Amino acid sequence: MAWLSAGPVPLTLGILALLVLAGLLAGWIDAVVGGGGLIQLPVLLLVPGMSPIQALATNKLGSIAGTAASATTYLRRVAPDKSAALPAAVCALAGAVLGAKLASLVPEAAFRPLILAVLVGVGAFTLAKPALGTEARLRFGEHSKRHHAVAWLLGGVVGIYDGALGPGTGSFLVIGFVALLGFDFLQASATAKIVNLATNLGALLFFVPAGHVVWQAGLAVAAGNVAGGVIGAKTAIRFGSGFVRAVFICVLAILVLTLGWQWIAGLSRGA
Question: What is the first-listed, main subcellular location in coarse terms (predicted)?
């Protein structure tokens, strides 16, 4: 298939500078609440000569650098729930490898309607419950089997999505930890970084050997992502769960509008 081509991509200094800036903004958003791929992936898709699979793979290289930086910053100040984070991370890594393989087989358009419906549902659920995520109220015992089972399931499902498409992964993890396990938004965001690190690694385990990563572009995005990730994590820690919740709702709204517009545009072209 032509879209799997990993041919050379010419990069000018202007394009590299744009990628650094996109990575910076995406890293900040991702560190606070997830969803940085909403900024980063579309910018990579605009690079002349870059195929969709190359953009997706290169996005993961930038994201893993930023996620590692923000996770390290969070771990110094916020204690993640390791009993949920570690099982979810293991399952997410395996799911991301599977999702990355699916990315080369399943048309992107097949994912959009379902993702859009889920995002609208998540947004409505969050708005309908103003107290959701303001403080931790665990649904199950921290070390219970149900707590672990939900973490495994959440990690696996989100991991498959992240490997296949990616944008909004961190947001799905955050709302999953808040709504399903009862974390507050700040702890959910910190825990999501560990799982997101695993999903990025899982996707790269497929993309790097397959030769889909455009390294120059990926390193430029990674540089911005690291700076944005550190700044974003410090911002979230300083302003707390209420701030993270507000950013979460804004990111969801932008994600819904963007995916909705792309879906409608795709239907119009197909008409």
Answer: membrane
On whether the pTM is more than 0.85, the answer is: no
SS (H, E, C) 23-69: HHHHHHHHHHCCCCHHHHHHHHHCCCCCCHHHHHHHHHHHHHHHHHH
Question: Token pair of 250, please?
Answer: 């804004």
pLDDT, tens digit, 9 for 90 and up, residues 199-231: 889 889 989 998 999 999 999 999 999 999 999
61 CB burial (10 A radius; 0-12, 13-18, 19+): buried
Domain boundaries, the chain: 12-270
User: What is the CB neighbour count within 10 angstroms for residue 98?
Assistant: 17
Nearest to 188 by CA among 148, 151, 152, 238: 151
CA–CA separation, 260 vs 262, rounded Å?
5
The answer to whether 102 and 161 have CB atoms below 8 angstroms apart is no
